[in-house]
Amino acid sequence: MHAVNELNTRRQKPPWLLPLLATFCFGAIFLFDLSTPLGVAGGVPYILIVLFGLLARQPVTVLVLAVISTLLTLAGLVLSPAAILPIPVVALNRGLAIFAIWATAIVSYLHLRSLAELKPLADRDELTGLYNRHYLQAESKKQISIARRYHQP
C-alpha cells in the first residue's frame, strides 16, 4: 500500500513527453517496416507503443494507440517492398500482428479500468468513507512540496 502511495506522489512527467515518445517510436517502427520486405514481422513492434498507453494511465489512450498501430501495420502491408513469402502467409503474419496488438490493448485497457475503480477504495475507509492514513500522508507530502516550491508557509 505504501508503495502505491509513493508511486502516486512521484514527480509528474511533462504532458508532451508521452506523445513525443510515441510519435518517435511510431515513425521509427514504420520506417523499419517500410525498409524490410514483406514476410518479416514488421507489425509486431507496434505492441510496444500500445504498452506506452499504460504510462499515460488513461484507458482511452491505449485504444487510440492500438488504432494507430493497426493502421500503420496495414499501411506497411501495402507500402512495403516485394514479399519474400507467399502473399497468404504475409497476410496471416499481419493478421496475427494485429491480433497481438489488440490483445495487448484490451488487457491494458481492462487493467487501467480496474486500477481506476480500485483507487477510490484504496484511499478511503469503507465503513466511514473518510480518507485513510496512507492517503493523508501522501497528500500532506504533496502539499508540503508545493508549499516549498512556491515559498509559502
Question: Would you give an account of this structure?
Answer:
The two termini are 29 Å apart. This protein has six helices and no strands. It is elongated, with a radius of gyration of 21 Å. The chain is an all-alpha fold and 153 residues long.
Straight-line N-to-C gap: 29 Å
N-to-C SSE series? HHHHHH
Strand-residue proportion: under 5%
Class computed from helices, strands and strand pairing: mainly alpha
Which blocks of ≥5 consecutive residues have pLDDT under 50?
Answer: 1-9
The chain-level mean pLDDT equals 84
Rough outline: elongated
State Rg. 21 Å
Largest sheet: none
Summarize the model shown.
Helix content is 74%, strand content 0%.
What features would you highlight for this structure?
mainly alpha; 6 helices; 0% strand; elongated; disordered N terminus
Topology record:
Blueprint: H1 2-9, H2 17-35, H3 46-56, H4 59-79, H5 87-123, H6 133-149
Helix pairs in contact: 1-6, 2-3, 2-4, 3-4, 3-5, 4-5
